[in-house]
Amino acid sequence: MANKFIKLTVIYIFGIIVLVWLLFPFYWTFLTSIKDPKEIIRVPPLMWVSEPYIENYILAFSNEEFVRGLANTVLSSILALLVSLGLAIPASYGLARAGRGIRIRGKDSLYFTFITFRMLPVFVFIIPFYLLYRSLGIFDTIGGLVIAYILIDLPLAVWFLTGFFEDIPWEIEDAYVMDGYPRTKAVMNITLPMALPGIVATAIICIIFTWSDLIFALTLTSKFAKTATYTLLGNITFTQVKWGELCAQIIILSSPLLVFSFYIQKYLVRGLTFGVVR
Amino acid sequence: MNKDYLTVLPGLIALFGIAIFAFVTTIYYSGTSFYLFEPEYDLVGLQNYVDLILWPRFHNSIMLTAIFCIGVAIQFGLGFILALFLNLNYKIMHAIRAIIIWPMVIPPVAVGLIWKLLLDPVTGPVNYILGFPVEWFGPHSAIWSLIMIDTWEWTPLFCIIFLAALQGIRKELIEAAMVDGLPFWTRLRVIIIPRVMPIAMLMVLVRLIDAIKTFDIGYATTMGGPGNASEILSILNYLLVFRQGFVGRGAALSMITFIILWCLGNLVVTFVRRLRR
Q1: A240, A132 Cβ separation under 8 angstroms
Q2: Average pLDDT of every residue of chain A
């Protein structure tokens, strides 16, 4: 009995340490976002506030640069995602079925060709993009950003989707075709609905990556197409850091991603390990 | 060439269309004396590469990136221990599992900024809780602080992979071992580690690639400073091209990074091929 009690105590103490380690940074960000400017610079730091100061959120939403940044983030993420999914869904379908009803040779090499793009250093692309975009007139535009984001999304989407498609039993689709339906219709009616949860997870993971991008935005935009991650840095100047507003903006920018996280966890494992761990 | 290739081709063409031109241009720039603020430049062959290899600032950056990669080993260890605990059937473990990936889904630049706030020497809560002042972003400590931030962000990745691998081990196997009275350490060594290790090595490689590419948290916190004390490769590359204008040398640096990542990437491919068989 006493032994069991000790075990339980140890486990809960460990658990609480882990929870604090994980959540304290989030707690502090939120806390700072509801502190007034005087409370933020208080020494020793206040560990909680009795009266939340919501002014920071009002300021964030009336900050034209941040709101436009947010709109740019959403817009460029979604556009790049749509293009990438449009290309990645057929590609992953083909790769997953290669040798199982689809005649594609060198499946592995093709698959890894896609994934290799994910592993390259971004500077290999960014330096020419930076110069080329200026001469093409797409520097600091959503369109230019979307092209760069396809480079993030497409390899990622093929990587994850191929794994998810490999789990689908093809017999149903084939039986449908055997009954005389055209292949495309069978794919639309049977296979895609079965793959939908995986496609949604992939879409979310792509969104998380482009939503979080800094380096492309930093180098390929300067004013009008700045994304929210870039405008976060605008709160930091030589003379001061507007921590209150900055933290409110971080909370606004991160909340959707935190909500998404509940859905993707199990797909993340499956996809990241190239389907080795289920 | 049959029409089945039409499923894969558009995607491949799009990727290569966007990337190949850029890639070839980078190779070309890496052989020139291109300086951003002067229109004229010459072909200099391998001069940029030679200059880099002889450049102390580059050596420093390679060293710091290597040190930064130690973080991956720390994340590996912590992730494994954490996964063993989270695999236990207690309410608090379920609670942790639900939010464990939070650090890795928020934008890395936000992670950097949050930790800059936490570690602030005057108003930061960390030094206050510790009770004594620590200079987190000093000449010797800055790189270790970056490692700590990276560890906060990416330990959850190892943890969820290990957790899934642990749950993939058949229950009967563990139960049989327990009935036989094998102590915990023996179970760990004989049953768990051999089954988890292959996938763990794969994740180490994937994480190493990402660690070498790390940019955002460095940019948000120290920007390579103080001096060059935390100037990891991607930060050096950024400063070189976009602050100082040395496009030629920056392109050469990105090609060197490319070669390193290419080797690691090939290891990943070999590994996955073997595991999927």
Answers
A1: no
A2: 90
pLDDT of residue A278: 58
Q: Of all helices (H) and strands (E), which one includes residue A96?
A: helix A64-97
Distance CA A12, CA A33 (A): 30
CATH 1.10.3720.10 fits A58-272, yes or no: yes
Average pLDDT over residues B166-191: 82
Chain length of chain B = 277
Structure token pair of residue A262:
């509940």
Please give the structure tokens belonging to residue A154: 């497409």
pTM: 0.93
- CA separation (Å) from B94 to A159, B46, B105? 29, 56, 19
A187: pLDDT strictly greater than 90: no
Q: What is the pLDDT of residue A1?
A: 64
CB atoms within 10 A of CB A55: 14
CB of A138 closer than 8 Å to CB of A225 = no
Q: Which two tokens stand for residue A274?
A: 């190239």
Residue B54: Cβ within 10 Å count = 9
Cis before A52 (ω within 30):
no
Q: Which pLDDT band, with edges at 50, 70 and 90, does A276 fall under?
A: low
A49 touches chain B (CB under 8 A): no
The encoded tokens of residue B102 equal 């939070």
Interface test with chain B among A4, A7, A123, A170, by most B beta carbons within 10 Å? A123
Q: In chain B, where are the structural domains located?
A: 31-106+140-276
Hey, is B228 helix, strand or coil?
Answer: coil
Q: How far is CA B40 from CA B32, B43, B45, in A?
A: 10, 11, 16
Quick check: A164 and A271 in contact, CB under 8 A? Answer: yes
Paired residues of A241 in beta bridges: A236
Interfacial A residues in 122-151 facing B (CB < 8 Å) = 122-125, 127-132, 147, 150-151
> Which class in CATH covers the domain with range B31-106+140-276?
mainly alpha
In single-letter form, the type of residue at position B144 comes to W
Average pLDDT over chain B reads 91
Domain spans of chain A? 2-40, 58-272
The residues in B 10-69 lying below 8 A from A, measured between CB atoms, are 10-12, 14-15, 18-19, 21-23, 25-26, 29
Residues of B with CB below 8 A from A247's CB? Answer: 114, 117
Top pLDDT among B26 and A42 is at: B26
Interface test with A, best of B91, B106, B119 (most A CBs within 10 A): B106
Encoding tokens for residue B131? 């009770």
Half-sphere exposure of B221 (CA within 13 A, CB side): 33
CB-based contact B96 A19, cutoff 8 Å: yes
